[in-house]
Amino acid sequence: MSVDVLTVSSKGQIALPVEMRRRLSIKQGDKYAAFENGDVIVLKPIKLPTEDEFMVWLDEASAWAKTIDLQQSQVSDIISEYRAEKRSKEE
């Protein structure tokens, strides 16, 4: 494990040293989730699906919805209910 000292900019940005980016194959535009635990910050790469992968998932979801006779009009209601429930838990 290597240790590097990083500086936070006035905008709250932190630049990773080029050697670290190379070792970890981090490229411009890569997405990361940041987790906080006390005074520890963990960065975890996020792999977004390709358009083809997303279309496969969408086809699978549509096929599943048909097996339970889920109507398009019900989807908006389900999403609204989920969001309202999530908001109430955050308050």
Description:
Helix content is 46%, strand content 15%. It has 3 helices and 2 strands, in the order αββαα. Strands 1-2 form a two-stranded antiparallel ribbon. It is elongated and about 55 Å long.
Radius of gyration: 20 Å
Helix proportion of residues, in percent?
A: 40-55%
- The SS-based structural class is alpha+beta
According to CATH, what is the class of the largest domain?
A: Mainly Beta
Strand order of the largest sheet: 1-2
Overall 3D form: elongated
What is the domain tally? 2
At a glance:
With 91 residues, the chain is an alpha+beta fold. Helix content is 46%, strand content 15%. It folds into 2 domains: 47 residues, Pemi-like Protein 1, Chain: D (Ribbon); 40 residues, no CATH class.
How is the topology of this model organized?
Layout: H1 18-23, E1 31-37, E2 40-46, H2 51-67, H3 72-90
Task: List key phrases describing it.
91 residues; alpha+beta; Pemi-like Protein 1, Chain: D; 2 domains; two-stranded antiparallel sheet; 3 helices; 15% strand; elongated
